[in-house]
Write a structure and sequence with these properties.
The complex is a heterodimer. Chain A has twelve helices and 14 strands. Chain A is an alpha/beta fold. The chains are: A alpha/beta, B alpha/beta.
């Protein structure tokens, strides 16, 4: 198991803010919209630096999505910002018709995804957003794992033609990816090679997967760790190649089991190469108030759950 | 302002090419009846009611270049149909205005057609810049397009059309609030106020109250026009244009009769979303002169 160095602890939403600020300087067609959460989304710098390209829409997310779709007509690249819950479930039909079906170049940027939003509780802790977004034709779904990767992903999606859902979060988490690494949409990132079990993770759970891999190594289990930052389109080749070698897989995500990353991997395996799979995800439950780490533990999606799942799945080979 | 009793108003028909506005409208209405009858589905009522408006808009008002249609529409006026279910009139007007061959109207709602039941961009039909059908979304889209025109320093305007029943959607009022607060003054929206929706009279389903006062209270400049009187359409659309660029969005409350032009379809919600039988269609077509040639 490869060693990983934590550069610092930062929130992924700040990576989004930093990426957007850079785009503000480099791409005059990038515009941004926010529904009364500019500070939370770290969009304040873009707002201050480019007031003519920033649209404060108020607490009116449906209107925000529609305006974003319209802004593309004439060549703008709109980035919308609000919490993941209000970015997806609340505006599903607006995204479906005005963005996805109309294939508009809108970037839906969603913070505070998952349980680690914490104390605000289940009303705000969406765990269904990846599923909702990946079901839409034309939609690309991206869930980066740390600050550096979120910043790189933000910059990369501006150059991609078509609708994108970019999911990130609230808490400070280990920032460990190379800040100079180019973000390639749709390309799996094999963080550490191994032979006994493949652990495929996305978002905040990527670092947890690394922790699990280290713990497994101490037990003599050689895990391959893959960061799937692009859930759709899925890098099927990389996934099949890895599982072809290890013969079993654990998926890990801060999302509902139904409709999440594990669901995509399972579907791929059933179609092309059946293999034992264990899914670390929230199983058909709403979240609740609490601290992020407490919630990950209570809902069985923390590091020990990944370790246990790996041990289980190896026995099923 | 009164809607003239009877069929289409014929005040001072203007020549366009060799055809008058009235002649174009008659052909568009024939197309609508023939299209929905052929596939036994679609929305003739609102289509017939908006025929005069869309014909005047596309043939006299909009500054557009149909043969060179582009999604971005730079240097052109843009139109967004928010009440996408009146696709038959939209498609017919687009075809006659030169966006695509009128023969293609025969494919309406059929497998593989670019003329989907509700307009979309996916099939690449020239003249369509956004999908619509699920109601309430087009005003937001029009605002976005208007904001881009401002950013691009493009002086052309953005127009949109909305059903009256559509105003029951909350997103419309989010958009209304936004456009006024942000001085989106290169936008002219129109409401097809025929007082009818699928389940019956608007007043029985969910009354809209005083629409003029509502839009004024939201900060818009409001005009009213008779959707079946060419003079009223022309002068009001011209007036609306002079009101742009003055810090407020403009909306026109257009009084129409659902089903206008076909006697048995007029003023009832019955033909909102159902097609006439072949016999009923014959009766309708007998009232509508073939002018530009059936597709």
């Amino acid at each position: 198991m490869k060693a990983f160095k934590i550069i610092d602890e930062k929130d992924t939403r700040s990576g989004f803010g930093a990426g957007l600020s850079e785009l503000g300087k480099t791409n005059p067609n990038v515009v941004a919209l926010c529904a009364d959460l500019t500070g939370s989304l770290k969009m304040d710098d873009f707002q201050k630096s480019h007031p003519e390209r920033f649209f404060q829409v108020g607490i009116a997310e449906a209107n925000m999505i529609g305006i974003a779709a319209g802004l593309t007509i004439g060549g703008k690249i709109p980035f919308t910002g609000t919490f993941a819950n209000f970015s997806t479930g609340r505006v599903y039909d607006q995204i479906r018709q005005s963005v996805a079906y109309s294939n508009k170049n809108v970037k839906i940027c969603a913070s505070h995804a998952g349980l680690t939003l914490g104390e605000d509780g289940a009303t705000h802790q969406i765990l269904e957003d990846i599923g909702l977004m990946k079901m839409l034709p034309n939609m690309t779904v991206i869930s980066p794992c740390d600050y550096n990767e979120t910043k790189a992903a933000t910059i990369a999606i501006a150059a991609h033609q078509g609708p994108v859902y970019l999911r990130f979060g609230r808490p400070k988490v280990p920032n460990f990816t190379d800040p100079n690494k180019k973000f390639v949409i749709g390309k799996a990132d094999i963080l550490s090679e191994g032979t006994d079990v493949t652990i495929i993770a996305t978002g905040h759970l990527v670092w947890k997967a690394i922790e699990a891999g280290q713990a497994l190594a101490e037990k003599g289990i050689d895990a391959e760790i893959i960061n799937i930052h692009t859930i759709k389109p899925l890098d099927e080749e990389a996934v099949l190649q890895s599982i072809g070698k290890t013969k079993c897989v654990v998926t890990a995500e801060e999302h509902m089991m139904n409709g999440g990353l594990g669901d995509s991997i399972a579907q791929l395996l059933v179609r092309k190469m059946p293999a034992p799979i264990e899914m670390v995800a929230v199983n058909d439950k709403f979240g609740e108030s609490g601290q992020g780490e407490e919630l990950l533990t209570k809902y069985h999606i923390n590091t020990p759950d990944i370790i246990a799942a790996a041990e289980r799945v190896i026995k099923r080979k | 302002m009164g809607i003239e009793n009877g069929l289409i108003s014929h005040a001072k028909p203007q020549k366009m090419g060799s055809f008058s506005t009235n002649q174009i409208c008659s052909q568009v209405r024939r197309d609508i009846i023939r299209m929905v009858t052929d596939v036994q589905s679609g929305h003739p009522g609102g289509s017939l009611g908006c025929t005069d408006f869309l014909t005047v808009l596309y043939f006299e008002t909009l500054e557009i270049n149909p043969p060179a249609f582009s999604m971005n529409g730079e240097g052109e006026d843009l139109f967004f149909l928010s009440n996408g279910h009146i696709s038959p009139v939209f498609y017919s007007v687009l075809a006659h205005r030169g966006y695509f061959p009128k023969a293609e109207l025969a494919t309406f709602r059929k497998l593989g057609s670019r003329l989907q039941g509700h307009p979309c961009t996916e099939k690449g039909l020239p003249g369509v810049r956004i999908a619509s059908g699920s109601l309430g979304q087009g005003l937001s889209v029009a605002i976005g397009a208007a904001l881009t025109k401002k950013l691009n320093k493009d002086p052309k305007l953005v127009y949109s059309l909305h059903g009256d029943g559509e105003l029951q959607e909350g997103q419309i009022w989010e958009a209304a609030m936004y456009a006024a607060a942000n001085k989106v003054d290169n936008l002219i929206a129109t409401v097809d106020y025929n007082h009818k929706q699928i389940d019956g009279d608007i007043d029985d389903v969910l009354p809209l109250g005083d629409l003029v006062k509502k839009w004024q209270a939201f900060g818009w400049d409001v005009l009213e026009m008779d959707g079946h009187n060419f003079d009223s359409l022309r002068t009001t659309l011209a007036k609306a244009k002079t009101m742009t660029g003055k810090g407020k969005p403009v909306i026109i409350i257009m009084k129409t009769i659902m089903g206008n032009g076909v006697d048995y379809m007029m003023g009832t919600h019955k033909w909102h979303g159902s097609a006439p039988s072949k016999e009923q269609a014959e009766k309708a077509l007998a009232q509508l002169e073939e002018t530009l040639g059936d597709y």
